[in-house]
Every structure is written in C-alpha cells, then in structure tokens.
Amino acid sequence: MGSEWPTVKFGEVLLNGARNGIYKKKELHGSGIKIVNMGELFAYPRLRSVPMKRVEVTAKELERASLQPGDLLFARRSLVAEGAGKCSIVLEVDEPTTFESSIIRCRPDPRKAHSLYLYYFFNSPQGRYLLGTIRRQVAVAGITGRDLVQLEIPLPPLAQQRAIAHILGTLDDKIELLRRMNETLEAMARALFKSWFVDFDPVIDNALEAGNPIPDELKGKAKRRLALGERRKPLPEHIRRLFPDRFVDSELGPIPDGWKIRSLDEIAEYLNGVAWQKYRAKEGEPSLPVIKIRELREGITSASDRASMHVPEEYIVEDGDVLFSWSGSLLVKIWCGGKGVLNQHLFKVSSKHYPKWFYYLWTSEHLGRFQRIAADKATTMGHIKRSHLSESYVLVPNSTLLGKMTAIIEPLIENQIANEIACRTLANIRDTLLPKLISGEIGVSDAEKFVKEAL
User: Which of the pair, 321 or 4, is modelled with greater confidence?
Assistant: First the structure.
C-alpha cells in the first residue's frame, strides 16, 4: 500500500529537469504561436486546445520552451499564497505552443512515471502540503524549479500509477463532458431567447407572410430573414402561429403587437442577502456555507465562511436558485453549489408569476448594461441600485405563447441544473478518492467498484 511505496526525488522522474517559461517584450505579443499564461494555468487544470494569446518566438526559444501532452505546469509565483505551486497538466496541443516566465514546466519520463498520476498527486492534500514546504513569501508567494525537483514523492509501480490516473481521470472526463453539454444547452437557450425577444424572428416571418409593414428599424433583419428562405422557420407551425404578425410603436421602439412592457422588478423579486455576521456559526454547531461573490464564481470551499442554521428561511439558497451579484463583479448565475446562506451584495431572484428561464434570461440580457453602470462608479466599488432594475424593461407575450416558450426552453435549463449537480457529485467522489488512492488507504479495485456504481 501507500506506506510501502518507495519515495524518489521528483527530479528523478523528469526529462530535462524543471524549466521556466519565456519572457517577451510587449511588442512581440499579438502574433506568432500560442502561449500559456497564468490565466490558462488557473482556468484549465487539465489544459486542452483552447484559444490563447500569441507571441513571436525564435526556433531556439521554442525548442527550449515548447509544450507537449503530458507536461506538468506549475505556477512559479502568485499574489495569493496558495496559488504558488498550482499544478495543471497539458492534455492536448493542437499547434506549437510555449509558456510564460511565471510558469515552470516539468516533463515526466514515461518510462518512470505517469503524468496524470503526478498531476493528481500534486493536487492531493499530501502533494499540496509538499508544495507548501518550498513556498517562499516575499512581495509575492513563489516556488523555484530548483526546490521543486528536490521534493520527495511517493512512486508506486507504473501499472499502479496508470490505474490511479485512470480512475480519477474517468471522473474528470465525465465532469468535462457534462460541462460541455451545459455550454451547448446554455447557448441553445440564449439563441432562442435572442431570436424571440431581441431579433423578433418569428414575428418578422409572420409579418412578411401576411404582407404587413416592417418598421424601418427592423428592415435590415427582415432582409436577412428573407435571404434564408425556408430555413427561417425552425419553429413548429402551430407554435409560430402563436406569435403576432405585426409590430406596434412603443417607448422602446417597435415591439410585437399585443406584447406588454414590464420592468425587471415587476416580473421578479430581487431579494438582497443578509448580514450573515449576525448569524455567525458557533464552533461545533451545524452550519451552512455563506454564498458571497467569490462562491458564486468559484463554488463553496473550505475557506468559505459559515453561518448558523437559524438564518431566516428566505435567505437560504438551494440548487436551482437564480443569483445575481449586483456589486463588485456583476454576474447572473443559476446556483448549483448546494444549500447555503445568501450574503449581502447578492440578489436571489424569484417569481410567483413567471418561469425561471424567463427572469433568468431577461436579467442576463440586461447584465451588460448593469456592468457598464457599475464600471462608471470609479470612486466606489461598482454596483447598481434597485432603481436600475425598475429602468430595465422586459417584453411579456400572452400567457398561451409564454407557456409554449416554456415547454421549449425550460427543459434546457432544467437539464443544465441536473448536469451541474451531477458534476458536483462526481467532483466530491473524486476529491474523496484522491487522497485515499494516493496514500494507498484504498485499493484500486475497491475504488473502481465505487466509481462504477457512481457512473
């Protein structure tokens, strides 16, 4: 088991030791080959072929600082202490790619060590502890390649390394698949919303067919719709017929006939969070994590504050609730991170009269404007006021059409929620198995059975 596995210096299982990336002057950025910056290292722990910035390099520089699948990347420095030593792995390289000077590259020797096993080791509690022993704090936290290669790491037989990497990698692969599915579902929902409420595609189609006039503001869109021919009618005929066939003038410009103008705060309730410090959990008592802007972006962590279970019920957040951070980093998101307490500076958005997709997508539609309003508040932390909700308008179709729209979009949203909750469950399984597999506390065969049941 783990206690019986030999330990070796990390550098002994590497080809060419540890290498720092390249530094290039600003004028050499913008063209050339892809470069992995700190942003990619932190955003993509399992780095695939994603869009990146570019930099011009010489052939000699590329030979010294290129990337290939299996390379491990470590953050050489970070403004946040725990960020120094952050380990990611390169899984795909679709074209010549280099990496910046704040990153250390380690290339494992496949005859001695499995790259994915090493990646999981350095992301385990044991691995993170070891990285902490070489972290230095001056102006910023940092590690050096010289110290990194001297770390003593447990090295099970290669077959065991592959088995551990396969078990944990299978879970991460499933998580990535579900998240890609969610990106597609979100894009579909937003495309339908834009077609119906921003571009008015079905109304334009019906107006063209009926020979009704097209407002000047929409003639360009109508021309593009005509150019599509029969392809411009993706909706079933019985649903398309529920859309109006003419436009009327309004304070917002031309809108579909019969649709009503409402404000965001007329279609939904925007509940501001609670001052959770009044309900700070006492040591040892049951508690809930506090959902702040950081948690909205990154999820619940061990560093999240905890509040008492006695917080008023309206401030409790459940999976599937729509949250809107109205201060600092403005963001609209359907929360799927588990039960928690809503902090100040976040709205919980709900409605007794309209479906979730409707107020979620309409709030998201106005997010860009809200962000611009917040950005203009240069002397204070950027935020919006409730009055801005009242000044943000929504188009509401008749109840029959809204019901048909709901039948189309709601499953997309509900599937996203289910997938995100499944991702959280799989991540919890991975994080539970990771230290046990790395330490040898649990055997590969037992872990495989556990994962098989979970999948």
Answer: 321
Beta bridge partners of 394: 262
Q: Pick the closest to residue 104 from 138, 78, 139 (CA basis).
A: 78
- Check whether residue 288 and residue 179 sit in a common domain: no
119 and 163, same structural domain? no
What's the confidence (pLDDT) of residue 151?
Answer: 98
Q: Are residues 126 and 21 in the same domain?
A: yes
Query: What residues pair up with 348 in beta bridges, in sequence order?
Result: 271, 323
Q: Are 68 and 85 in contact (CB under 8 A)?
A: no
Which of 127, 155, 183 terminates a domain? The answer is: 155
Question: Apex CA 22: angle with CA 17 and CA 25, to 5°?
Answer: 170
Q: Confirm if 300 and 338 have CB atoms less than 8 A apart.
A: yes
**What's the rounded Cα separation, in Å, for the pair 152 and 90?**
23
Q: By C-alpha distance, which of 370, 285, 275 is closest to 327? A: 370
d(C-alpha 419, C-alpha 18), whole Å: 38
Q: Is 207 helix (H, G, I), strand (E, B) or coil?
A: helix
Q: Please say which residue of 366, 396, 426 terminates a domain.
A: 396
CA distance 115 to 168: 13
Question: Mapping DSSP to helix (H, G, I), strand (E, B) and coil, where does residue 286 land?
Answer: coil
Confidence (pLDDT) at 113: 98
Tally the residues of the chain: 455
Three-state secondary-structure class, residue 264 = helix
Asked whether the beta carbons of 101 and 38 are under 8 A apart, the reply is no
Comparing 244-253, 361-370, 374-383, which segment has the lowest mean pLDDT? 374-383
Q: Tell me how far apart the alpha carbons of residues 415 and 402 are, in angstroms, rounded to a whole number.
A: 20
| Parent domain of 300 | 266-396
Give 91's pLDDT tier (boundaries 50, 70, 90): very high
pTM of the model: 0.90
- pLDDT score, position 1: 47
Our count of domains for the chain comes to: 3
Distance, in Å, from the CA atom of 70 to the CA atom of 19, rounded to the nearest integer, reads 15
Largest pairwise CA distance in the chain: 82
Whole-number pLDDT of residue 154: 95
